[in-house]
Amino acid sequence: MADKVKTAILGFGRWGMLLHKASLDCRHLEVTHAVTRSPHKVHEYCQEHSLKLGDDLDHMLGTSAVDALVIATPHSQHYDQLIAAAHANKHVYCEKPFTLSGDQASAALIELSRAGCKVAIGHNRRFAPNTLALRNMIQIGWFGDLVHIDGVFNASMDQAKGRWRDSLEESPAGGMTSLGIHVVDMFINLMGRVTELSARSVRVAPHCSFDDNTTASMVFANGARGHLTTLTSTAMRWQVTLYGTKGWAELRDLDTLMINPVEGAHETIHYPGFEYPALATMTAALDAFALDITKDEHFPVRPDEIEHATRILEAIIQSAQYGNSVDLR
Prior knowledge:
This protein is 33% helix and 26% strand. The protein is built from nine helices and 15 strands.
């Protein structure tokens, strides 16, 4: 394998193009191919960046010029594409959600493992400097006992109207597949496994076919509680607040950390250069994926965490539909 992992992006819409732009600063990964259903829409861009462009996934998977695949397609297509990548012995970086069911996630992860393929997921917020600082605070015991976490990811999804996200199949439980899944991963990152949850998803002021107000209450294995909110009919907001017996700290966007100890002064730390969409976090995630492939430096989101997040997503969808509490133990 060459110094840089040769990679193809599958799905070259808005997010696929952002991933390519982020890859331009990668030290260990190079995007060489793009596969999309509408090549004519990105032909000029791909020419400008010397990307081999096509619309045939099987053809791309059959070439030895590509080591890895970045999947940035509609959620419902991920499972079949993950399996195809495993059968072609291609490492995979998949955008979230990984799949739409826990059993599919488990099956895909097993196939990729059997093929000796590395797997990563596009939770770039794990690589934001405020998140890394907060994780370090947990590790050094700054919080004392962890007691609660609140997470919010809201955004106006008017731009989804009439597009592929504007369907109940692709967007069950409102904004969970596009927004809330980020909160789920951050909860796992900071608090560990979820053992029980209940959720509600309703239409208050929707602009698309899916719900615009989705909430979930969770119980963690460590006994702490959590609450997730995702709204799709308001301005963007990313906020995660972690509470412990010694104080609380809060992530705001990808560039701000607020710290409030029980004893001591309140502090707000800003990290310039990480304003949304914070391409540097995507660059770091892609490079971490490449280093897992070339040097076995494990990607920060473990396969079991990918599966667990998918089962949480599935449980939220089920609970919102039937009004029941779901046991995840």
